[in-house]
Amino acid sequence: MANRSAPPDDQQSLLEDERGFFAEQLSKPKALKKSSPVLKDEPAAHYHGHRERLRTKYRDHGDTALADYEILELLLFRLIPRRDTKPIAKALLDRFGTLAGVFGAPATLLQEVKGVGEAVALDLKLVATVGQRMLKSELRGKQVLSSWSSVIDYCHAAMAYESREQFRILFLDKRNALIADEVQGQGTVDHTPVYPREVVRRALELSATAIILVHNHPSGDPTPSRADIDMTKTIIDTAKPLGITVHDHIIVGKDGHVSLKGLRLI
Question: What pTM was computed for the model?
Fold first, then answer.
């Protein structure tokens, strides 16, 4: 607005100054902003090629071509997308011994392994739960006594790596088909309180005519204790007058399982 009131000579000088200024600015190259540099394509992380090779190996040759740590790696690819997962897979196996040990370990212990956070630990436990449900589905509607290996596989997957003792009961109908599978109690590392009358009461509620008792030994050794044997006999004596048969008492541990009936202890 001030230019309109300036004398003609001053206006001409102002116009020439403005033209000179803008011409100078246009002739200067624009500087690149520091905040947005021109970047070349970054090289792929070294483990990307390894991941693709491992997937191809699994696709073409199946799981038999892969070591346990490689199977675990394949799963961790999905859970940890931006890290080299081989060291994590090997660290998990070093800590827990086997794949079963890894998936059976409590989430809190899984998180003690470097690279395993809460989300990854919970995802590993989810995979373990899927496996247990698959094994349990194999028992549903079938005569349990004729599918004994499936019973053992399920009980081992569900209980062998628990850090505390757990007392579980499989309730069966008159055809010895599975009605229900329930955890009746959890205890300490070496003891679970069991109440025979409560066991029998629950069997009557479910109209079960037979039961299989199962519990775990967190120590790993499934050898029955004197208390295990006495408790089993008490449940048998309580259930028998009410028409409920105790087929067996299975004790599972990381080192295997034992059957009290197989040992002729009941």
Answer: 0.71
